[in-house]
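User: These chains co-purify. Model them together.
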Amino acid sequence: MTPRIHIKPGTYHSSAGQAGFTLFETLLVILLFSIMVVLMGSIFIGSLNLQRKAFNLQQAEENASFVLEAMAKEIRVSQISGPDTNCPATPAVSLSITHPVNGNIIYSLSGNSIHRNVNGTDSIMNSNSVEFTNLKFCISGAAVDDGKQPRVTIMASVRSVKTQQQASINVQTTLSQRFLSN
Amino acid sequence: MKFNSKTGSSRFQSGFTLVELLVAIFLFSLAFTATTFVLTLNLGSATSIKNSFVASGLAQEGIEVARNLRDNDWFSGSPFGTSIPNGTYIAQWNSQALAPVGSNPNIKFDGASGLFSYGSGTDTIFNRSLTIDTVTPGVEKRVVVIVSWQERSGSTKTVSAEEHLFNWK
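Assistant: Joint model of the two components:
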């Protein structure tokens, strides 16, 4: 038996006499909606990337700032060990100093981290959210009776570990030894 | 928007009008513009802080080089301030004498060695000048280092550092 369906116009909500959405209207709505979604999505991704970049930059800056400041503070008051370097061709990869209180300190770069070795005890100065890609020292005036006060130039490059929107900083500073040494 | 309670949805019911749609889009875009603006500002600040940090390293370098030259005068037996006469100069990491400021060229960065100098490499955004004057003749000199650069937004920023050098060993 075939079921007989008969709906009188006006008795049912979606009857033939009443207007629902036409196919055209539906397509139009889908189009507009997808345009909105794509637009909003791209703005969202854009803002996310901006935020990532800013955060990576902040990480790199904070680490570089700390490491350089800590090194500068110690190097200034220490006695710098030679020999003089031939810069910029062959800078030193590590710096050895004698601090009046802390003793013998060696700064070096190993495995993308800056190591501070104090009297044989090693520690890492930077956090693991960044990696140092360069740390070089230019030493001059370390020789005895050269008529020059010892001077160290520190060159460092740091970048964020996160490669998406990676941030990197190159920084340099020079320090003159406080302890007079001809 | 009238709602026909008899039929639930009728042919005569109005949906969103164009004006309502426009207002909604306007409000949405306002919110998004504000968010994007804040994030862009955030990145701008982070970049500005980074530049200040690099500049402060370069400013310290200027101060230390001036101090180093004063010390060298002692070794050579020259009177205090011989190597740091009054005036405005430029100097780099290995300078054994101050150079005239001239047009105050930008400091270069050599990617291969990682060195900031006036020698080789590509121009950075930073320039640096050392201004020296006498506070007390034969006793005290003032060194003011100014590192200045232009942000991407076009505004000029400076970091300045001041050091007083004495004729005291």
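Chain A touches chain B through 48 residues (CB under 8 Å).
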